[in-house]
Design brief:
Elements: E1 2-10, E2 13-15, E3 25-34, E4 41-49, E5 56-57, E6 63-64, E7 66-75, E8 78-88, E9 101-109, E10 113-123, E11 133-139, E12 147-148, E13 152-159, E14 167-168, E15 171-175, E16 180-181, E17 187-195, E18 207-215, E19 221-231, E20 236-244, E21 251-260, E22 266-276, H1 304-312, H2 320-328, H3 335-349, H4 354-372, H5 383-391, E23 396-400, E24 409-417, E25 421-429, E26 439-443, H6 454-459, H7 481-486
Parallel strand pairs: 16-22
Antiparallel strand pairs: 1-2, 1-3, 3-4, 4-9, 5-6, 7-8, 7-10, 10-11, 12-17, 13-15, 13-17, 14-15, 17-20, 18-19, 18-21, 21-22, 23-24, 24-25, 25-26
Helix pairs in contact: 1-3, 3-4, 4-5
Length: 492
């Protein structure tokens, strides 16, 4: 597996997400698990933002920054691996331009099992101490069946005959730590290892390595970003590949890597979440040009205004490309185009019964309208409405609208999200206290707004301005935000 952690070290705390400033130490961490003849290992990639650390002038007149790092892996029996070290930057002639990162890579040999990983990072040249950040990491490479390493996102790779700590399978791999690709980033590279397929696939047969990009929201496979190749089964099969994502629209995605046998059965599969922002990518109407709507429910909708409203209501469950259509092409499209788009949208999601799927969603739009609309927004346009329509009703919902020291707020909890995430929560608040428009302030769900300072923002009703370097607040009478986050109780 691969996991990305955004760590902000400030005022003695390791946090995630906020605006960077010179006051804060910014650290980004990802990790990937691999197997080897010597046993499994976890590889960590730590990046430090150069403009967030204190640079000290050295005897030779150049400047250097130093970060203290402590990484520990524990299981139920105690510490199984740890490293405590100083991460030194390269020396700089001056500190006029610190808009860069310096990167560290470590490997920890660990047996199969579940570990509590703890990291502490602090600037050696500042007085603030780092509090530990913890994360469970699973190492799972069974000897009796095939398995796959994590998928390492790669910024660049070069063939080498002189191995270093960056070397795998004869290539030096420079990791892409951030899992975020902006407009100019046209290449998505990645590396993975597949183990033990020689025991699962007959030697006289090939197997298929498939890799593709899918939409995060609905797992819709993007055929323009899909490749496959036949491989001979080995003890270790290596995949080093890339995609040109110049035309990939803004949105949330999964990179999927699979191994399939001759019967097209999935033997191994891994997914990695990433985000893309790309203002130059647009929805192509050629995708729906051949869509046949004769005799369908879409043909019966003959009002362009009604269709535009229906399509607008699809925004919460739309992919990046579809959101681009709604934003930029909806209002200038004619009725036949709208009908084709609308039918194609639901046919992709339910090829057998597209109309039934639309009517079920339409009912949920009505629920969102009744519960979350404001004087200036329809229900599906609000943050609560969007989350409700995208993920369904929460398992628990608790609202606090009259606490003396906080803005009105709600906390929603989902026991399971998208059949993969567990125990995820959303915090909404109403800072204007007039329109009853509750804005999404914070969530620990993948792809959602992450604001570790959310408790401070809630308190901004009584305390201004907000200090984004602080994440903890002193409990006062009438404030239940801590309890509500731990255990929201009221069902929707």
């Amino acid at each position: 597996m691969k996991k990305t952690l955004l760590l902000l070290i400030t005022a003695g705390l390791i946090l995630a997400g906020s605006s960077a400033s010179a006051k804060n130490l910014w650290a980004y961490l990802t990790y990937t698990t691999f197997n080897s003849p010597e046993g499994p290992y976890v590889e960590t990639y730590l990046s430090i933002a150069g403009n967030s650390v204190k640079w000290i002038k050295q005897a030779d007149g150049k400047y250097k920054a130093v970060v203290n790092v402590l990484m520990t892996f524990k299981d139920k029996t105690g510490i199984k691996a740890f490293k405590k070290y100083e991460l030194n930057s390269n020396e700089m002639a001056d500190t006029a331009n610190l808009n860069f990162q310096f990167i560290d890579q470590q490997r920890f040999k660990l047996a199969n099992g579940t570990y509590n990983f703890e990291i502490q990072v602090s600037d050696k040249n500042k007085s603030a101490l780092a509090s530990p950040y913890t994360q469970n990491i699973v190492v799972d490479f069974p000897a009796d069946k095939p398995s796959m390493s994590g998928v390492e996102m790669v910024k660049s790779f070069t063939k080498t005959d002189m191995p270093t700590t960056l070397t795998k399978s004869g290539y030096n791999l420079v990791p892409n730590i951030y899992n975020f690709y902006n407009g100019p980033d046209a290449n998505l590279g990645f590396y993975a290892e597949l183990y033990g397929l020689d025991k699962a696939v007959p030697q006289d047969q090939k197997f298929l390595v498939c890799y593709y990009i899918e939409c995060f929201e609905n797992n819709l496979k993007l055929n323009d970003f899909a490749k496959a190749k036949k491989e001979t089964p080995k003890a270790v099969n290596v995949l080093l590949a890339d995609f040109n994502i110049k035309d990939l629209a803004t949105g949330n995605y999964n990179l999927v890597v699979e191994a399939r046998n001759a019967n097209n059965e999935v033997l191994l599969s891994k997914k990695v979440f990433f985000q893309r922002t790309n203002p130059n990518a647009t929805y192509s109407l050629t995708q729906i040009a051949s869509t046949v709507i004769q005799g369908t429910f879409a043909e019966k909708i003959t009002s362009a205004d009604s269709l535009k409203e229906f399509i607008n209501s699809l925004y919460p469950i739309s992919t990046g490309y579809e959101k681009d259509f709604i934003r930029f092409q909806l209002n200038k499209s004619d009725l036949p185009t709208l009908q084709k788009y609308f039918y194609s949208f639901w046919q992709e999601r339910s090829s057998a019964e597209p109309e039934k799927a639309w009517l079920a969603y339409k009912d949920q739009v009505k629920v969102a309208q009744a519960n979350f609309s404001t004087t200036i927004k329809r229900g599906y346009q609000t943050d609560r409405g969007r989350v409700f329509l995208e993920y369904g009703p929460p398992n628990a919902r608790e609202g606090h609208y009259a606490e003396p020291n906080t803005y009105p707020y709600e906390i929603w909890q989902y026991y399971t999200l998208n059949n993969s995430q567990r125990n995820k929560k959303f915090v909404f608040y109403s800072p204007d206290m007039v329109t009853a428009d509750f804005i999404l302030l914070h969530s620990d769900a993948i792809g959602e707004q992450y604001t570790p300072t959310w408790k401070v923002f809630l308190r901004n009703k009584m305390t201004a301005p907000v200090d984004i370097s602080e994440t903890q607040v002193v409990n006062v009478w009438g404030d239940f935000s801590e309890d509500s986050w731990d255990l929201p109780t009221t069902n929707l």
